[in-house]
């Protein structure tokens, strides 16, 4: 049965149609927010997938260019692989919802969001987040929701909820908060050095808005919600677990995981699994398939008990202690900039490359306000960084997400195009991984940018804190600088990056049903303490400020301003003039519509030559000006000189020398470079030049 529900959300109408389309999905919500339209569906397989020990959830966010009245480019004329924005949106939909499905649910679930129409003032990403939550809540798929999400901006110091396109353009905050009925379950933020207390205020103001949306969703579920279906529970046999614990013993498991060397811990766990396989091979062969899950459960219980009750971390650190840190620059001699940051067994090297503004990334998507990207941060996570063997198949969703997080953290401190007219690319190569490589890549990228001579406003550092919770909201332990094991078995990965003066990026992932305000506040302030230590004691002694100039092997860029009406003269017919300049000098030239010209190259002499040619082209010949030209044609009455591509003039035979010249060839030859002075216009209105009158 078709039903429609509406509410006012941040000054615009949110409408949810149920039963109007996609009736065969387990749950479907046809979402309208302003003129933005997104179809969100939730579907699940009838049976669990065999042979897996995880919940197989897939989230898709499909951008259709018809939504903004565009036809895809290229020959194929249909949408190709998901854009970076689509991948990041899929991740931000996934993260608050995944913890609310049953932990032992093994049925395949797909949340699909089809963007069908876009109103730039009403975010399709937010609409999809709400749509996925509603579609799942009204479906028969087991789900402990609903969730609600709100975007927050800050304009002139005032918080703005679900900002419009114009508000986003001037906002100093891009925050997304997802909530359950009681707690915050996901935070994603980019910010222009927002102080911690202001960020906390923004998070919980968004949480209030989310409660209004959840009340709205509850009404929809009450009228349209299906009864949740039963499913096959995938649990470790109780007899197996009890026998394993008595055979291995908690003391032995604690000894196995209590080490600061990841490889040693993994070898200890392998030995335990081997012992169990030998034990059950004859007595209980039906248990062998459950050994991995049982050992995982035993490890998790042991690690959490050690941290929560005994206040012992697996590597012996204090709860607030950061692993051993190191910072280096200039590891690679010929790149434009390089830096390496090491934190325990997490090691990241970032390489900076500078280029002309023509090398910025062009974006073709449904966001009409973002068509290019000048700063690009890429993150690579090879299998050798965790001691595994796997062929490289290009970046996955995790790599793209981590790269975007680091990019978001660094954008607020980058110089403007006017201050530093370069396209900038940083690539973080993960050398070794054992916890929070994304934050390590932020630190390494800061080092690399400063080493490359990029005049960033302030250094940025990032750190991650974790969490282990007990049976009540006030029974918890926060861990500074979590390693892989603590992330794996803990409840939270709370990443915060920023400068001394404020936060530039947040990403919070949790595995439980939300966090209290107290935990969030403590986590944010804990990261500030750690960030301050990293900036002051580790990064500053390595390199305290950006180098004054770009390196020897980096391109040099000179900017000049010309009259916009002269742009055609510089470009020439079909690009003939500008291509001639490039051919002569080997530089790259970018010209904007307002007359800003950037000349880029590695040889300063050739750059200056190109600049001189351009200035000659745009300069009108006036009496008394001195020029240098090349003889390109000789006639009986004089010689023609080229001062720049497309810019020519003539010297009469009588103006070549103070001595009498019988033949032009007696004094000048083709290709000669000579200085001339402009004499002004002759009787016929032509510009004339003289060699003999040059002083």
Automatic annotation (TrEMBL):
It is found in: Cytoplasm. It comes from the Bacteria. Its cofactor is Mg(2+). One of its GO terms (biological process) is RNA processing. Its EC number is 2.7.7.8. SMART domains: KH, S1. The keyword Nucleotidyltransferase applies. Mg(2+) binds at residues 487, 493. The keyword Cytoplasm applies. It is an enzyme of class 2 (transferase). Keywords: Cytoplasm, Magnesium, Metal-binding, Nucleotidyltransferase, RNA-binding, Transferase. GO terms for cellular component: cytosol. It catalyses: RNA(n+1) + phosphate = RNA(n) + a ribonucleoside 5'-diphosphate. GO terms for molecular function: 3'-5'-RNA exonuclease activity; magnesium ion binding; polyribonucleotide nucleotidyltransferase activity; RNA binding. Residues 624-692 form the S1 motif domain. Belongs to the polyribonucleotide nucleotidyltransferase family. Involved in mRNA degradation. Catalyzes the phosphorolysis of single-stranded polyribonucleotides processively in the 3'- to 5'-direction. HAMAP family: PNPase. This is Polyribonucleotide nucleotidyltransferase. It comes from Anaeromicropila herbilytica. The lineage of its organism: Bacteria, Bacillati, Bacillota, Clostridia, Lachnospirales. The gene is pnp.
